[in-house]
Design a protein that fits this description.
The protein starts with a helix and ends with a helix. It is globular and about 55 Å long. It has a two-stranded parallel ribbon. It has one domain. It has eleven helices and two strands. With 276 residues, it is mainly α. The structure holds zinc ion (ZN) (2 copies). The site of one zinc ion has 6 residues, from helix 9.
């Protein structure tokens, strides 16, 4: 038996455990492929931030850190371990939807990039951005309800001084909530596979920046006409530190109109940017 056929029988063995009756041929191989794609995105992006800020320039940049203390090694490990679980869950969902011939015809996915026209192709990114920002804000606020907080969202808040590794540090129940945006996309608006790929790549870059521990926007930004509406690392860091207020993801739109932006946000932003 060749190595390759060993691998094939290993996969089909797993496949029949994973999905009895083999409804989806080779779904395990596809699952591993998707998990690798989501995982490499997370480890690459969070890893680059971590390498630059926590390793290479740790000393030079430490005085500018939003919270002066550094997380302990066990905090990084916990964040990575929960994120690993999230990656597995995120990768499983497309298997049951996009890769499932019984479900895929009901999705709004399309195959050729120019099928909907290039105008729509680029507009879809804006739509995804606004949909995700809205979905995240409201799901996040619901997860802070005292009756469910400790079952769903508390794991993410174990990081009171987050590092970029916290980007996907969710309890499995929260991972399911967070993957809801993917499900929403593929059942409501026409999307190409490249939309999914590029959008979630952008998303992890912004998400990891929100947990970075340093502010990258310039001094005064939070008070500019555009900066007023954009979420920052200071804002999300405050959310992790105090648990209350600043629930947004990419924008501060919902926080501002719902009155959930912390009153000390602008002052804290400036205080952080004044650090030398
Ligand atoms: Zn929260
Ligand atoms: Zn967070």
């Amino acid at each position: 038996m060749s190595l390759n056929s060993d691998w094939q029988s290993f996969l089909s063995g797993l496949n029949s455990i994973f999905l009895p009756g083999k409804i989806i041929p080779m779904s395990v191989e596809k699952f591993l492929q998707i998990a690798l794609s989501i995982g490499s995105r997370y480890y690459l992006v969070a890893g680059v931030y971590f390498l630059i800020f926590y390793v290479l320039f740790r000393r030079a940049l430490s005085s500018k850190k939003i919270q002066a203390a550094f997380p302990a090694n066990k905090d990084y490990l916990r964040e990575m371990a929960y994120s690993f679980g999230t990656i597995i869950l995120f990768a499983a969902v497309p298997i049951f939807i996009v890769q499932n011939p019984a479900v895929r015809p009901y999705t709004t996915l399309y195959d050729r990039m120019n099928e909907m026209g290039w105008g729509y192709y680029w507009f879809a990114y804006l739509l995804m951005f606004l949909m995700h920002d809205t979905y995240f804000y409201w799901a996040h606020r619901i997860m802070h309800h005292p009756s469910i907080f400790k079952w769903v969202h508390k794991v993410h808040h174990l990081s009171t001084n987050p590092s970029p590794w916290a980007a996907y540090a969710f309890h499995p129940l929260e991972s399911i909530v967070e993957t809801g945006i993917f499900v929403l996309f593929v059942f409501t608006i026409p999307v190409h596979q490249s939309h999914i790929y590029l959008f979630f790549f952008f998303s992890i870059i912004y998400n990891a920046y929100g947990h970075l521990g340093w502010e990258l926007y310039p001094a005064g930004f939070s008070k500019t006409w555009i900066g007023k509406w954009i979420n920052t690392s200071v804002s999300h860091n405050q959310h992790h530190k105090y648990f209350k207020g600043n629930y947004g993801l990419y924008l501060l739109f919902w926080d501002r109109i719902m009155g959930t932006l912390r009153e000390d946000y602008d002052a804290t932003f400036e205080k952080v940017k004044q650090k030398t």
